[in-house]
Amino acid sequence: MDLFVATQRGGGFVETRALPGAINTAEDEFDATFLEDGVTVVFTRAPDLRKGDVRLFHARRTRTGYDRGDALPAGVNTPGGDAYAPMLDWSRKSRLTFTTRRPVDSPNGVDVYLIEYAWK
Fold first, then answer.
1. Tens of pLDDT, residues 67-108
2. Among 22, 42, 79, 118, which is most exposed with the fewest C-beta within 10 angstroms?
3. Please, are residues 44 and 29 in contact by the beta-carbon 8 Å criterion?
4. 3: closest CA among 51, 16, 70, 15?
5. Longest Cα pair distance anywhere in the chain, in angstroms?
């Protein structure tokens, strides 16, 4: 899986293309949201969805496209857990929601989290 973008025109979307740069790798990238600054994207990446951790990353757009991205900190990406579905909170754009399975807190389920973010 890779990240794509489409241009909206009229009543539909056209010109679907992969996000440029190094953001799409041999791993699976999905569940992306663009942050308020217009140059940062938060997304989910997993080496293999059936095994290994599924983590949230962020990448910034440069002149040549998006960088490969860096994992969000341990407060978001819990070792042994999975994090999915980042989404900008449109009621307050400095907040991000995401879902996660944390083995200690929710061994049998998934919880929704809300965090404040600030980019320097």
1. 999 999 888 888 778 888 899 888 888 888 888 887 666 566
2. 118
3. yes
4. 16
5. 48
What burial class does residue 30 get, using C-beta atoms within 10 Å of its C-beta: 0-12 exposed, 13-18 middle, 19+ buried?
middle
| pTM assigned to the model | 0.86
Where does residue 56 fall: left (phi above 0), alpha (psi -120 to 50 degrees), or beta otherwise?
Answer: beta
Residue whose C-alpha is closest to residue 66's, from 84, 89, 42: 42
Token look-up 């399975």 returns 101
Cα dihedral 107, 108, 113, 119, rounded to 10, equals 50
Q: Measure the N-to-C terminal CA separation of the chain; round to a whole number of Å.
A: 30
DSSP string of 89-107? -TTSTTEEEEEEE-TTT-T
